């Protein structure tokens, strides 16, 4: 499903390309796609970074761990709020496990000045915690898979334009300003819609470690949003699937929704959720 104006949620939450680290000569690309010039690449990236939601939105989702061998794990339910403040885009995520394990919540913010993350597990809120700890035991998904801080890293360069999953996309490679994993992330923007559709994390040797892939989009109240996305461990080939089950779009949330001081309690849910 495609449309010229996809929701920024897809740009935030949305995301296989082990070849991102290898740039092609200017003007040359797979299937002879015209390559972007430096000014064009800067414009494409700038437009993506400055794009905004058509109102705030909230969706309920389920995360399922699918090992390469064996049965899938029980689904872990959660809720995501996405919006915009004067400082830039914000995301709030709450996991609400049904197996008695402690809940988790985090708020992520990003802008041209950098990215910040506040995460609460149990009774403690930590700012900018470790980025390699999954959202819940047995999952692959990290907070960064939903916050996507790498789209705003300063050292980001255009790599190439080529076909991926049947569509032309622009590939960019972002270098992590912090000396922690991942060393870099290659992400792909759909050429027509300017939407993030793939992201691959690389280690310091340029080896792909994990891939985030948008699997489908869905339409709610005439607005396109993320329908599902996956995260794959490139070593084990295990996969996490995040599937949106209900969504409420074109809302306006109170500023407290994205205030880290409120992570000690569940955020209020909007009314009017629509099933996907």
Architecture, according to CATH? Clam
Report the β-strand fraction as a percent range: 35-45%
If you average the pLDDT, what whole number results?
87
For the secondary structure, the number of strands is: 14
Give helix % range.
Answer: under 10%
Number of domains: 1
Please name the CATH topology: outer membrane lipoprotein receptor (LolB), chain A
The largest β sheet comes out as: 14 strands, antiparallel
Query: What is the count of helical runs?
Result: 3
SSE class:
mainly beta
CATH class: Mainly Beta
Query: Could you tell me the radius of gyration in angstroms?
Result: 18 Å
The succession of helices and strands, N to C, reads HHEEEEEEHEEEEEEEE
Shape type: globular
Give the distance, in angstroms, between the N- and C-terminal Cα atoms: 13 Å
Structural overview:
The protein is mainly beta and 276 residues long. The protein has one domain (8-275): Clam (outer membrane lipoprotein receptor (LolB), chain A). It has three helices and 14 strands. Strands 1, 2, 3, 4, 5, 6, 7, 8, 9, 10, 11, 12, 13 and 14 form a 14-stranded antiparallel sheet that branches. The longest helix is centred in the N-terminal third of the chain and has 13 residues, at 38-50. The radius of gyration is 18 Å and the shape is globular. It starts with 7 loop residues before the first helix and ends with a strand.
């Amino acid at each position: 499903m495609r449309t010229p104006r996809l929701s920024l949620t897809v740009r935030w939450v949305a995301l296989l390309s082990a070849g991102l680290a290898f740039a092609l000569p200017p003007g040359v690309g797979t299937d002879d796609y015209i390559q972007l010039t430096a000014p064009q690449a800067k414009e494409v990236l700038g437009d993506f970074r400055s794009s905004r939601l058509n109102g705030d939105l909230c969706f309920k989702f389920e995360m399922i761990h699918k090992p390469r061998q064996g049965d899938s794990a029980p689904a872990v339910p959660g809720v995501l709020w996405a919006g915009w403040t004067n400082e830039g885009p914000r995301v709030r995520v709450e996991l609400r496990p049904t197996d008695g394990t402690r809940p988790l919540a985090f708020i992520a913010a990003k802008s041209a000045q950098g990215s910040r993350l506040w995460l609460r597990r149990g009774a403690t809120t930590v700012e900018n915690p470790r980025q390699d700890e999954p959202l819940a035991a047995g999952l692959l998904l990290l907070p960064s898979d939903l916050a996507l801080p790498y789209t705003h890293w300063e050292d980001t360069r255009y790599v190439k334009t080529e076909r991926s999953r049947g569509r032309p996309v622009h590939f960019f490679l972002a270098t992590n300003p912090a000396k922690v994993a991942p060393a870099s992330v290659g992400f792909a923007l759909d050429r027509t819609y300017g939407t993030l559709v793939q992201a691959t994390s690389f280690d310091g040797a340029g080896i792909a470690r994990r891939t985030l892939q948008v699997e489908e989009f869905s339409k709610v109240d005439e607005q396109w949003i993320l329908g599902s996305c996956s995260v794959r461990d490139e070593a084990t080939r295990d996969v996490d699937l995040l599937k949106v089950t209900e969504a409420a779009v074109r809302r306006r949330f109170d500023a407290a929704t994205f205030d880290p001081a409120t992570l000690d309690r569940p955020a209020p849910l909007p009314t009017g959720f629509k099933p996907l």
